[in-house]
Amino acid sequence: MNSLLQLSPQAFISFLQKNNIRRLHFIWNPETQRVEASHAVLQPVADFMQHDKRDFSRHEGIFLQVTRQHNTLQGAFVHNTHRGQGAGGTRFWRYETMEEYLRDGLRLSKGMTRKNSLAGLWWGGGKGVIARNPELDSTDPRIRADLFREYGELMTALRGCYVTAEDVGTDTSDMAHIFSKTRFITCIPPELGGSGNPSEPTATGVLRGMEAALAFADGGTIAGRTIAVQGMGNVGWPLIRMLIEKGARRVFACDISAARVQRAKETFSEDVLDARLIAAGDNEILFSDCDIVAPCATGAVLNPQTIPRLRAKIVCGAANNQLEDSERDDLLLFERGIIYVPDFLVNRMGIVNCANEQYGYVSDDPAITRHLDTEWEYSIYRKTIEVLQLAREEKAPPAQTAIQLADRIARETHPVFGHRGQQIIASLVAERWYEND
Ligand code: NAD
């Protein structure tokens, strides 16, 4: 067993400090075809990635730093920059071991390459991961300000091979702190020229995925259908409203928040909406007698325990990583004849909304709205139909089909800048970026 990987992030920080290392990297060297560590003592971690088949896939660069204040491990995972700089949000989360931390960054950054490619964005895939130091009060605004400013300094040091954004555990005020130290960020607050909350477009994107799946399945529309929505949050709420506006016959919805359920009961007619308060972990909503199930709360809800009990013919929702195991559960749904619309295909509007912030804003911005129409080749509607058709022709499950299609698109290089992210990374390595601190 690789002992460095079993260390907690805090113990790994102590190991780095003993070795006088504050910044470090792991790089895929296309010439040697090897993962190379910035420091010889870290090569065992590079070797772990080299031999990992599950989450590592020739990630171009992984860059880490220990913050000067608050002893926190911060990282930028750059997966693939053929289509542009690596883009994706920064997660601020608790990790038990370095293996968990690294796997999350590897998996999420690869996922961003796929999401961005299928969306036709001229961006590569990347993800930020900051490991919460359990000894800190991470809700303290002063501590957050320090941490996110230092994260901004890391972005600047990386010269734009990765452009960060908001993700689980971070908000726009954290982004403002990052922005005070770097230009390589999107999703900044609207008062600083950012794009604002993307949840409404995300809900419309999920609706388009449902419409495409229905058109593919039986040529029908939302009108007259029954849909079950798990979670009435920022995405689930507008989705329910849109489904009702589109003439859904019945919408079942649930939430663990009593206030949200109460508000739903006050807002929508109970002739259409059946809103229930549930306990966390109660997945009964998924087994509703309905046409479509929309997971819009947490991940991993589709698994060998839940899939056999589904009664819907279509699953299409906003939650990230709905499949507990992306290959096994995709296949289980496929074998049951259930159409699964991959989450990373329909929940793209968060990144779409902010990815091109620096190009400015147009009312009813066509660069945004074309993702939600039914004409553009990369629109959610057209890409969903394309994936479902391909899957049918190849007798393969749709998430695997979408991944193959995404990986093909991800190999196209940016029409103006080519594979510039790789050049940036090569120059960082050549100039030993980690020493210029
Ligand atoms: P949110 O936190 O606003 O809403 C989630 C809702 O689900 C909350 O109301 C919460 O009380 C409820 N909930 C939590 N656990 C539950 C459970 N076990 N059963 C039922 N309800 C439960 O989040 P959101 O912004 O609406 O996002 C929903 C999902 O979509 C998340 O997985 C998120 O990562 C993903 N997503 C969101 C966006 C976006 O634009 N907001 C973009 C891409 C993906």
Short overview:
The protein is of the alpha/beta class and 437 residues long. The chain is built from 16 helices and 14 strands. Nicotinamide-adenine-dinucleotide binds next to helix 7 and strand 10.
Account of the protein in words:
- There is one protein chain.
- The chain is 39% helix and 15% strand.
- With 437 residues, the protein is an alpha/beta fold.
- The strands form two sheets. Strands 1, 2, 3, 4, 5, 6, 7 and 8 form an eight-stranded mixed beta sheet that branches.
- The mean pLDDT is 96.
- Bound molecules: nicotinamide-adenine-dinucleotide.
- Nicotinamide-adenine-dinucleotide binds next to helix 7 and strand 10.
Largest sheet: 8 strands, mixed
Give the C-alpha Rg: 22 Å
Whole-number average pLDDT?
Answer: 96
CATH topology of the largest domain: Rossmann fold
The fourth-level CATH homologous superfamily of the largest domain is Leucine Dehydrogenase, chain A, domain 1
Task: State the end-to-end CA separation.
Answer: 33 Å
Tell me, what is the CATH class of the largest domain? Alpha Beta
Which structural class is indicated by helix and strand composition?
A: alpha/beta
β content, as a range? 5-15%
Q: Work out the count of structural domains.
A: 2
Shape: globular
User: Portion of residues in helices?
Assistant: 25-40%
N-to-C order of helices and strands: HHEEHEEEEHEHEHHEHEHEEEHEHHHHHH
**Strand tally:** 14
Uncertain regions spanning at least 5 consecutive residues: none
Cofactors, ions and other ligands in the entry: nicotinamide-adenine-dinucleotide
Helical stretch count? 16
Name the CATH architecture of the largest domain. 3-Layer(aba) Sandwich
